[in-house]
Predict the structure.
Amino acid sequence: MESKLYPPVGFHFDVTFGFRSKVANDMYFQSVSGLNYSLQTDTLKEGGENRFEHVIPVRNKCSDLVLRRGIFKSGDTQITEWCLQAFNNFEFSPVDIVINLLNEQHKPLMTWNVHHAWPKSWKVADLNADKGEILIETFELNYNYFTFK
């Protein structure tokens, strides 16, 4: 039985891109960050009032969405191909992304719908013979906004 007294854990989630992938594991990520809103502000100086300035909200701004996972072999990942299409050919195909926080029965507890995402950066971790770590790739995506339910 699901308890409503405790906050949910943040390690059980799934990510779905707005396109189908050839490989099921293509959508598995180690971490997701950047689901942030902030308000940009403007300062208004009032004539004759020297004690303070008025700070007014102007617009919302979202952070970059950052997705991390173990790297896939070239040709086995639709997401990397989507990014490389943007970087190599400057052909951007923005997609919507759904991020679900899951409960113990693998059903969504919370859902973030990220709108109009496009690749801004793709990074591969350092190759290092001294460490026996999984090679991680990081995707940084720009997006317009997200909705939360």
